[in-house]
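Handout, section B. The chain below has 201 residues.
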Amino acid sequence: MAPVESAPEALTAEVEMTYDRRTARLHWATAVLVTVLWVIGQVIDWFPKGVPRISARSVHITLGVLLAVVLVRRIVWRSRSGRRLPPANPGVWGHVARSVHWALYAALAAVVVLGMLNAWARGDSIFSLFHIPKLLPANAQLKPAVEYLHKTFANALVILAAAHALAALAHHFILRDGLLLRMLPWLGQMSGASRFKQRRS
């Protein structure tokens, strides 16, 4: 007769198969900020020139700085204290997932750095309170070049993130392997408790 798994053991095993809560919070904060920043970037030029457009661009820059802080915090936490889980897929697909993961980090860092350079090259005003000193004002080609690179990397980041999200949804709704719950520790623990109750009943 197989031994019955106790509730604490079942829930502990379930918790160990999910990321810790801080890792999850930083992940979802990154996802929300990237989405909001990309949308704002698409509509900034729709605002009338003057205070409305300055305000929209200022919000974009402020959220970009917040994204930089979240990114640094996420890297530090992951390298020191964040829970590491085994690959969800072995073999080739595991390597592909890992490559996409690191590509997301690289693209995210590139977008943040290029965004800061873009604000610097433009000499943007922040809520009409102060101006960022313009980088190399004599170089007329710098501003459009940095702006183009920022937009290109931002679009590449969103495409990668969308592919990452679609893969997670496919795992959850088609393969039904619980992969998405690894980044939802709150739901993961609830589902673990539910499965334990079902086994006991």
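Note. Residues 142-175 form the longest helix (34 residues). Compare this with the example in section A.
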